[in-house]
């Protein structure tokens, strides 16, 4: 009798302890309390039913305690906090051009955000990001952040640095039943399109509205789709506000446990491109054909197609786990003009970094003509060197369009949270005959630009 009474008291104490753990240690709730309960079941102190009851009770007590301590309303079900910090050495050189002064920069990126999940499949989130201020006039973004980068450069006598709104959005997942997925997002968001950096810089967080979804055809095939409309600028003196519209469809297939593929296509369009002058919006990249006033000469409504295939090896030297080998490519054509309107890339990736002691090595060759796509949205790290300033542009090393060349990247995850990356670009201009202010066309010298970045990134 005394033994049974003692056992009951022990269980009550364990219930109370686990409940307290859940209530007062939010980060440990989903991990430490579950691990403790599992251990008690393994030792026979709790039965499976008692463990289930305890989990349900601790979940409820955790939510109640969190609401009481934070003032969280009862329709908010959880918060997720996370971000990353990246330190970078960044170097750009033009080894075969004596006029270019090599540029070395030490930089960092900090991103921190919160996502609130609510009843009825609602979600609201925001993320803050570091970044250098965008130069220019007040009309085109003076004091605002670079739309294609969260990098902050170490400079200016240890001055305090800027923090910007990187994302701020609301999302409603209207359907999620295992077969269909449909969600709508408004605000400043992670890019919902799955095109590569040839089309969109990875740091771009567009502003507007998007619908994303998927349909599971069967165990092998899933169709994913995206439609979006994004604001590019708001012009007080005109009704021709520029915007970007587009749609994308992908067929994702798993043919065998080792072989998978993805094939898809999409259409993008810039509405009222004539309003995207160098005086109106942030001007970061170069390449598009513009007149002396900085106005785009052509329209941009490209058609894009992409495909890739991945094969999983059971193992590979110096790699933890199954080893993926991926080959792929992407093609773009802009019917809005008949000249300099195509682009493509082809490449391969060995491995996949992301968890402890995993790595990847990737190579890509890219050719992106001057007017294949709007230059302000493409990868700003994929630079080429202009010795002479083109019309409405500047001399120097710039990302954008009118670029051809190679990209190699190696990533190694030292731990689950820490990854080292080394990335190198070696590029040239495609069209070296430029229109320059105040003179006839000039032929640019064959100047290869080399851009090297070494990163250490911590996720939290």
SSE blueprint and pairings:
Elements: H1 2-24, H2 26-42, H3 48-70, E1 76-93, E2 103-118, E3 122-131, E4 152-153, E5 162-176, E6 180-188, E7 207-216, E8 221-231, E9 243-254, E10 259-271, E11 303-313, E12 323-333, E13 342-351, E14 359-368, E15 384-386, E16 396-398, E17 403-413, E18 418-429, E19 433-434, E20 442-443, E21 449-459
Antiparallel strand pairs: 1-2, 1-21, 2-3, 2-4, 3-5, 5-6, 6-7, 7-8, 8-9, 9-10, 10-11, 11-12, 12-13, 13-14, 14-17, 15-16, 17-18, 18-21, 19-20
Helix pairs in contact: 1-2, 1-3, 2-3
Question: How does this model look, in words?
Answer:
The protein is mainly β. The chain has 2 domains: 2-70; 79-459, Porin (Beta Barrel), CATH 2.40.160.10. It has helices at residues 2-24, 26-42, 48-70; strands spanning 76-93, 103-118, 122-131, 152-153, 162-176, 180-188, 207-216, 221-231, 243-254, 259-271, 303-313, 323-333, 342-351, 359-368, 384-386, 396-398, 403-413, 418-429, 433-434, 442-443, 449-459. The strands form 3 sheets. A 16-stranded antiparallel beta barrel has the order 1-2-3-5-6-7-8-9-10-11-12-13-14-17-18-21. A two-stranded antiparallel ribbon has the order 15-16. Helix 1 runs parallel beside helix 3 (48-70).
Write the CATH architecture name of the largest domain: Beta Barrel
Question: Structural class, judged by helices and strands?
Answer: mainly beta
Pattern of helices and strands: HHHEEEEEEEEEEEEEEEEEEEEE
What distance separates the N and C termini? 50 Å
Low-confidence stretches: 12-30
Rg for CA atoms: 26 Å
| Strand percent estimate | 35-45%
List the domain count as a whole number: 2
Mean pLDDT: 90
Counting H and I runs of at least 4 residues, what is the number of helices? Answer: 3
The main sheet orders its strands as: 1-2-3-5-6-7-8-9-10-11-12-13-14-17-18-21
Q: Look at the structure and give the CATH class of the largest domain.
A: Mainly Beta
Helix content: 10-25%
Count of DSSP strands: 21
Q: What's the shape?
A: globular
CATH superfamily assignment of the largest domain? Answer: Porin
How would you sum up the major sheet? 16 strands, antiparallel, barrel
């Amino acid at each position: 009798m005394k033994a049974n009474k003692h056992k009951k008291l022990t269980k009550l104490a364990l219930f109370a302890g686990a409940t307290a753990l859940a209530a007062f240690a939010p980060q440990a709730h989903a991990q430490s309390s579950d691990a403790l309960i599992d251990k008690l079941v393994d030792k026979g102190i709790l039965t499976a039913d008692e463990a289930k009851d305890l989990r349900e009770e601790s979940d409820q007590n955790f939510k109640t305690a969190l609401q009481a301590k934070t003032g969280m309303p009862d329709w908010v079900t959880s918060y997720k906090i996370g971000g990353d910090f990246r330190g970078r050495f960044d170097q750009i050189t033009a080894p075969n051009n004596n006029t270019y002064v090599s540029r070395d920069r030490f930089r960092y990126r900090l991103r921190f955000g919160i996502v609130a999940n609510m009843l009825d499949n609602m979600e609201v989130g925001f993320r803050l990001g570091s970044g250098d201020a965008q130069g220019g006039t007040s009309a085109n973004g003076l004091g605002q952040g670079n739309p294609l980068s969260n990098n902050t450069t170490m400079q200016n006598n240890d001055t305090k640095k800027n923090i910007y709104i990187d994302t701020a959005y609301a999302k409603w997942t209207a359907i999620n039943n295992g077969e269909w997925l449909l969600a709508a997002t408004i605000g400043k968001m992670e890019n919902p399109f799955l095109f590569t950096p040839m089309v969109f810089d990875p740091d771009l967080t567009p502003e507007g509205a998007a619908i994303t979804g998927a349909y599971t055809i069967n165990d092998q095939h899933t169709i994913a789709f995206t439609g979006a409309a994004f604001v590019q600028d708001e012009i007080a003196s005109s009704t021709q506000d520029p915007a970007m519209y587009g749609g994308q469809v992908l067929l994702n297939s798993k043919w065998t446990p080792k072989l998978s593929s993805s094939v898809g296509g999409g259409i993008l369009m810039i509405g009222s491109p004539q309003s995207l002058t160098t005086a109106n919006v942030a001007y970061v990249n170069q390449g598009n054909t513009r007149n002396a006033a900085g106005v785009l000469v052509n329209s941009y409504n490209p058609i894009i197609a992409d495909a890739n295939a991945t094969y999983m090896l059971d193992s590979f030297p110096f790699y933890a786990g199954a080893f993926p080998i991926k080959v792929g490519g992407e093609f773009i054509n802009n019917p809005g003009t008949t000249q300099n309107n195509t682009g493509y890339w082809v490449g391969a990736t060995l491995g996949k970094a992301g968890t402890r002691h995993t790595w990847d090595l990737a190579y890509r060759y890219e050719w992106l003509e001057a007017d294949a796509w709007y230059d302000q949205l493409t990868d700003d790290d994929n630079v080429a060197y202009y010795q002479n300033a083109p019309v409405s542009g500047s001399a120097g090393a710039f990302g954008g369009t009118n670029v051809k060349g190679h990209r190699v990247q190696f990533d190694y995850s030292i731990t689950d949270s820490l990854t080292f990356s080394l990335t190198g670009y070696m590029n040239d201009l495609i069209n070296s005959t430029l229109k320059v202010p105040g003179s006839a066309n000039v032929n640019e010298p064959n100047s290869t630009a080399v851009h090297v970045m070494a990163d250490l990134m911590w996720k939290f």
